[in-house]
Amino acid sequence: MISCVSLSRGRAPVRRSHLACLPLALASAFGGLAHAQEAPTLGETVVTANRTPQALSDIVGDVSIIDRQTIERSGATGVADLLARQPGIEITRNGGIGNNTSVFIRGAETRFTAVYIDGVRIDSQSTVGAGWEGIPLAQIDRIEVLRGPAAAVYGSDAIGGVIQLFTKRGEEGVSPYVGVGIGSNDLRKLEAGLSGKSGAFDYSLGVAHEESKGFNIQPASKRVLSKDGYTSPDRDGYRSNSGNVKLGYQITPDQRIEASVLSSDILAGYDTTIPFRTKLPFLFKDDLSSNTLRTAALTWSAKWNEIYSTRVQVTDSRSTYETDPAYYRTETHLRGYLFQNEFRFGPHLVTAALERREDGLVNPAATTTAKLLARDRSQDAISLGYGFVQGPHSLQLHVRHDKDSEFGGKTTGSAAYGYAITPTLRATVSAGTAFRVPTLYQRFSEYGLASLKPESSRNVELGLKYTEGATSAGIVVYSNRVQNLIVFDGSAKGCASSFGCYASTARARYQGVTLSGGHRIGDVTLRASLDYQDPRDLSTNNLLARRAQRHATFGADWRVAGWTLGAEVQTSSKRYDDAANTVKLGGYTLLNLSASTQITRDLNLIARVDNVGNKDYQYARLYATAGRTAYVGLKWTPQ
Fold first, then answer.
1. Are 87 and 529 in contact (CB under 8 A)?
2. Is there a contact between 503 and 486 (Cβ–Cβ < 8 Å)?
């Protein structure tokens, strides 16, 4: 039997557990190998693609980075609004900020995107995936977007892609900030924070409050009886409070421990259509929804020698969604444990990880459901990865096996290769499999079927990218086929509900082409992306609901006389609101304008007008968008 003993001056020997000894044993075993490559700096690295820091130029996948400067200049109040300006991404929302929001990567279902905040998984064990409306943009410092499946790295959920959001990390010195903003629909924003570093200790904390009286998200509706039921003409505003704290301590030059917590609460008005036959007494009260999100992470990172490093992380997230007066509540609790090992020698990178995920769901009895739903499950996984970068060649291989407490084992894999044809032109090819297990609600609610199967996919894609100085251009062609797609089936048999239940009987194909590029001419920076896609239900040959076959973004920023002036066009073709493709949502084109400048050394101004032409369009039938909106903000950041 192997044991591990540590000696401290003046103290008795301490016997460590086998898990604690493992990094030390592996470090000793690999200590004599060739020297590792120097890790790139944070500004040049991407973490999300392979779950380990890598130079952006070495990544084979289709990745975008949104930095803090872009976030601040965007004027966006929701994470989804910012993501909608990225290649390959569409969103839908039932009204304004704080209401149900979906994000589609390459046309894939919103639940097919794995979402993380500082490594903490965000998901709903109800039906919709991550609750985008509850993620506070004010607390986010950086966003990484990976388009394409990544289940061989992350496990269940990552069929369409991965989005990881990062909060700020403290840097040398002390950096306070205070920001205020006002805008249309009586929007008010206030934020403040402090970050810094002293010796081995770094810290960052921030708080934010945001509120708006909003607009009537169903403007054609009146509180009258219609064929759809009763609806409300009132303004539907929101109120949001959020905060985060991140603390880090450099134990030694090669070991760091970090803790982070985030909290968000948003209360939003919404309009619902309640069947008039119920004649409920609260029918004329304001409809309110509440989203809460709590995340926490504790991470220990260690570099044991020039070859071997480890990361141990424990994460926890709790999210709730509640409506009133038509009471409904769902609570999701996710716990994660990760032990990741990295071996770097020469052009090679080998990763090995053990991971455990625990999911829990509680749905109390509600207005329309009389029974309590309380279920949990777990997944244990082992994954291996190999990366090789040398000369014009880049190679990434991953394999992962997940053992679900209910469905048994599932193995996924991916392979990606990149070749630099010239120093400025690079071609890539990749293939991968992915899956998502049904949510606990989809299996065990009154609309659920315990016999549902995991959704699974196979993806292939080709890419070509040109980069030279400030000029870039890229094209990605992809095809992603999904089996056992879960849909709601009103005619399904064996349902507890007379309205029907979920069934894993459909098939889908997400295929398309994404073109993107950027160029700088003097003081003018241009950017553009264009998507042609065909997200289709192969069982019916209909387009999937609320997804366009064409959407694009074009933008330009001009630096002149101390100002940065920006113009942006967002355009989308028609979509269908329903699976049968009978209810059409018209296409739209929006013009957004922005201006920012540094008024003094410590004070910055941003002004923005979105939807300058006041275009009337919808993401979802019966639900309006905000129309033309303006925003002005000031931020004090003493140098």
1. yes
2. yes
Which residues 6+ apart lie within 8 Å of 170 measured at CB? 195, 196, 197, 202, 203, 204, 246, 248
Integer Cα distance of 368 and 326 in angstroms: 8
CA torsion, points 55, 57, 58, 64, in degrees to nearest 10?
Answer: 80
The pTM score is 0.90
Q: How many whole angstroms separate alpha carbon 574 and alpha carbon 579?
A: 14
The string of pLDDT tens digits covering residues 274-318 is 443 344 444 445 788 999 999 999 999 999 999 999 999 999 999
| Helix and strand element counts for the chain (H, E) | 5, 38
Length of the chain equals 639
Q: What percent of the residues of the chain are helix, what percent strand, and what percent coil, each to the nearest 5? A: 10, 60, 35
Gyration radius of the chain's alpha carbons: 25
Q: What three-state secondary structure class fits 66?
A: strand
Q: How far apart are CA 484 and CA 46, in angstroms?
A: 32
Contacts with 625 (C-beta within 8 Å, 6 or more apart), sequence order: 93, 96, 611, 616, 617, 618, 619
d(CA 128, CA 108): 12
Q: How far is CA 370 from CA 30, 213, 328, 361, 363, in A?
A: 59, 34, 11, 16, 10
CA atoms of 177 and 420, how far apart (whole Å): 43
CA-to-CA distance for 300 and 278, rounded, in angstroms?
55
What tokens appear for 610 in the block?
Answer: 């979105």
Q: Is 256 helix (H, G, I), strand (E, B) or coil?
A: strand
The Cα–Cα gap between 606 and 69 comes to 11
Measured distance between the N- and C-terminal CA atoms of the chain, rounded to whole angstroms: 58
Tell me the per-residue pLDDT of 180-232, one tens digit each, with 9 for 90 and over.
Answer: 999 999 999 999 999 999 999 999 999 999 999 999 888 765 444 444 445 56
